[in-house]
Structures are given as C-alpha cells and as structure tokens.
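Subject: design request, 83 residues
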C-alpha cells in the first residue's frame, strides 16, 4: 500500500481588475463554484501548480477564503521517510 506525505500551502490572491464581476456561489454542502472568473488572468495560479507539480506534488484539495487560497498537496513518500 503506498504511503504519502502531505503539504499545506497558503497563497495570497493577487488583486485582479476584471471587466466583468466575478461571482462565487456556494451550495448547502459547502461546495463553491466560480460562475464568472477573470478570463486570462490566472497565470499566478498556473505558476503555483507548475512549480509544485515539478516537485512531485499533486493538488488534492483547495479552498478560497478572504483573498487566500489554501492548498493541500500529496506525493508518494520515499522509502524510509515518515509518511
């Protein structure tokens, strides 16, 4: 059975100027969805995802709260490491 190591990171969202208003809707179960995002202004997110991906991390959960993005990552632990 594989063993995993986990990492939690917090990223401040950049200030974005959108032509249209972004709408985030949440359901009763706590799931949130972006109805209209700033198109073409997610390079900072692609950079975070790419950097962690090159380090072997897989994003397993993320959440948005008060202009911060919380991310939970996992990757297989190396033999002999605590996992």
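Subject: RE: design request

Done. Sequence follows.
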């Amino acid at each position: 059975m594989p063993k995993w190591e986990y990492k939690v990171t917090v990223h401040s969202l950049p200030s974005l100027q959108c032509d249209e208003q972004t709408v985030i809707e949440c359901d009763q179960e706590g799931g949130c969805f972006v109805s209209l995002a700033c198109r073409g202004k997610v390079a900072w997110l692609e950079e975070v995802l790419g950097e962690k991906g090159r380090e072997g991390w897989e994003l397993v959960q993320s959440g948005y709260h008060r202009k911060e993005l919380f991310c939970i990552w996992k990757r297989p632990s190396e033999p002999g490491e605590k996992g």
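The chain is about 15% helix and 40% strand.
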